[in-house]
């Protein structure tokens, strides 16, 4: 919490100039409207002989974690996410590993798609998240949950490094997750692994055989070649990462996916990160109370307990949590109370959030002085028009409102774009492109305004009209 110099002076019933003088005396150059942070306010308070209480930021009660002692930690299987450009073989690779290293080890086992599975190599396990791509990965991170220990970057040897390859590299980098490169489709006659390695160096990934530190494994998902080596490399990298957890404590982990099943009620796939989850235990997942009624592993077998890195399908939740929500086992009374509390805080936040900007409300918000910047994400079908639209929109900036293009790119409107707009309280403009299904759903949930145009000047007209309060109300 902060307070302006003016407000501070008023609060204490002193002259603002006096406060400014004091601040300058403290080495802080301030004007009337400058904000005073909590720390400075405390020092000022001491100067004036008043006690300064700092309001705790109103934060939803986090699902408190328990500290584990180092000696309680034991190795757990690494959790892996597969990323890469579209059509480079992410799904094929996940399927191939599942077929080779899951069902093969147990005859007759039918793997269930629950959003994650475990593969085995040399008697050791690796947990794979079954939703490939950096979008899901980043969506979870945006919720504060990071489950991935290692990323496998799939690059097709016949296609090389492509835009989403670069995005994936950047997302993994931002998360500090080590990357192993699977150079896929080496069965293709026009495959060129060296070119892939060359292109990767331009993005900071230098292959080991070229003197760098990035492990690159040539594979063919279709022919199931190189898979064992790839998995061995995952274990090797895992060893250097010290991937450990205490299995002997109340379980904590994240929700991988969740849905409402007609027959079974709310069903969630959860990944245990610490502790052991047992049937019968009460828990909070996000803001949802639950009591584990039954658990199934990725082979559809009923199990009674699940330790670190084990993905399980859980029945017995009172509602459907969100993918990426953290869950924590606690005693029932506390779990109910915490879930209720988090829900209340969330509702309040939602109310506050209705300040989300839409073009319809732009003018009113401008008039009320609520917004001073219009943040826009632009997606379009060709680079030229995306740039032209972006520049023209930015030129619409006035003294009241500055138009910011916070992200622009070629391609359809994705959920990742919606998340970005959500984080920046912005709107999305599509030029000759549409939102995909997930983006549409996310936009609805997050109340993000998406507008699609086929003609540049119509987009400009709308934004201009909105800024001057002349937007057609039925828009
Ligand atoms: P994703 O979009 O990254 O999940 O890619 P997919 O797994 O859907 O694969 C895209 C296409 O590439 C499909 O037609 C696959 O059959 C093909 N493909 C995937 N792996 C290989 C491979 O190792 N060799 C060849 N020749 N084709 C592959």
From TrEMBL:
<keyword id="KW-0648">Protein biosynthesis</keyword>
<feature type="binding site">
    <location>
        <begin position="184"/>
        <end position="187"/>
    </location>
    <ligand>
        <name>GTP</name>
    </ligand>
</feature>
<dbReference type="GO" id="GO:0003743">
    <property type="term" value="F:translation initiation factor activity"/>
</dbReference>
<feature type="region of interest" description="G-domain">
    <location>
        <begin position="78"/>
        <end position="226"/>
    </location>
</feature>
<feature type="binding site">
    <location>
        <begin position="84"/>
        <end position="91"/>
    </location>
    <ligand>
        <name>GTP</name>
    </ligand>
</feature>
<feature type="domain" description="Tr-type G">
    <location>
        <begin position="75"/>
        <end position="248"/>
    </location>
</feature>
<feature type="binding site">
    <location>
        <begin position="130"/>
        <end position="134"/>
    </location>
    <ligand>
        <name>GTP</name>
    </ligand>
</feature>
<comment type="similarity">
    <text>Belongs to the TRAFAC class translation factor GTPase superfamily. Classic translation factor GTPase family. IF-2 subfamily.</text>
</comment>
<keyword id="KW-0963">Cytoplasm</keyword>
<keyword id="KW-0396">Initiation factor</keyword>
<dbReference type="GO" id="GO:0003924">
    <property type="term" value="F:GTPase activity"/>
</dbReference>
<keyword id="KW-0342">GTP-binding</keyword>
<comment type="function">
    <text>One of the essential components for the initiation of protein synthesis. Protects formylmethionyl-tRNA from spontaneous hydrolysis and promotes its binding to the 30S ribosomal subunits. Also involved in the hydrolysis of GTP during the formation of the 70S ribosomal complex.</text>
</comment>
<keyword id="KW-0547">Nucleotide-binding</keyword>
<protein>
    <recommendedName>
        <fullName>Translation initiation factor IF-2</fullName>
    </recommendedName>
</protein>
<dbReference type="GO" id="GO:0005829">
    <property type="term" value="C:cytosol"/>
</dbReference>
<dbReference type="GO" id="GO:0005525">
    <property type="term" value="F:GTP binding"/>
</dbReference>
């Amino acid at each position: 919490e902060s307070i302006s110099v003016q407000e501070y002076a008023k609060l204490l019933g002193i002259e603002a100039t006096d406060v400014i003088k004091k601040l300058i005396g403290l080495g802080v150059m301030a004007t009337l409207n400058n904000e005073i942070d909590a720390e400075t306010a405390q020092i000022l308070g001491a100067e004036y002989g008043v006690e300064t209480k700092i309001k705790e930021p109103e934060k939803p009660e986090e699902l408190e974690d328990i500290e584990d002692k180092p000696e309680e930690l034991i190795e757990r299987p690494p959790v892996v996410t597969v990323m890469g450009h579209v059509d480079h073989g992410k799904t094929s690779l996940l399927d191939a590993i599942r077929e080779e290293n899951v069902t093969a080890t147990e005859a007759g086992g039918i793997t269930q798609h629950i959003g994650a599975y475990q593969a085995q190599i040399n008697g050791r396990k690796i947990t794979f998240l079954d939703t490939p791509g950096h979008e899901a990965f980043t969506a979870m991170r945006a919720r504060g949950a990071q489950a991935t220990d290692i990323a496998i970057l799939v690059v097709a040897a016949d296609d090389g490094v492509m835009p989403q390859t670069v995005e994936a590299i950047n997302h993994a980098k931002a998360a500090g997750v080590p990357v192993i490169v699977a150079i896929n489709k080496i069965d293709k006659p026009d495959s060129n692994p060296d070119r892939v390695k060359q292109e990767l160096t331009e993005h900071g990934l230098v292959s080991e055989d070229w003197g760098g530190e990035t492990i690159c494994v040539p594979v063919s998902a279709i022919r199931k070649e190189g898979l064992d080596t790839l998995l061995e490399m995952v274990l090797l990298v895992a060893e250097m990462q010290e991937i450990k957890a205490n299995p002997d404590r109340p379980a904590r982990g994240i929700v991988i996916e969740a849905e409402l099943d007609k027959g079974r009620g709310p069903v969630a796939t959860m990944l245990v990160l610490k502790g052991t989850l047992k049937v019968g235990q009460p828990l909070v997942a996000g803001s949802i109370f639950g009591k584990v009624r039954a658990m199934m592993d990725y082979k559809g077998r009923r199990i009674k307990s699940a330790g670190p890195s084990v993905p399980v399908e859980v029945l017995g939740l009172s509602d459907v949590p969100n993918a990426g929500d953290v869950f924590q086992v606690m005693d029932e009374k506390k779990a109910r109370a915490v879930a209720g509390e988090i829900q209340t805080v969330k509702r309040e936040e939602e109310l506050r959030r209705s300040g989300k900007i839409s073009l319809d409300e732009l003018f009113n918000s401008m008039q009320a002085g609520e917004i001073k910047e219009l943040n826009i994400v632009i997606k379009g079908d060709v680079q030229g028009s995306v740039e032209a639209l972006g520049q023209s929109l930015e030129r619409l900036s006035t003294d009241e409102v500055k138009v910011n293009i916070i992200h622009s790119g070629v391609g359809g409107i994705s959920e990742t774009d919606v998340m970005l707009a959500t984080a920046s309280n912005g709107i999305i403009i599509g030029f000759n492109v549409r939102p995909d299904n997930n983006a549409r759903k996310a936009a609805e949930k997050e109340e993000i305004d998406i507008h699609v145009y086929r003609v540049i000047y119509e987009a400009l007209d709308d934004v201009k009209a909105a800024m001057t309060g002349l937007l057609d109300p039925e828009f």
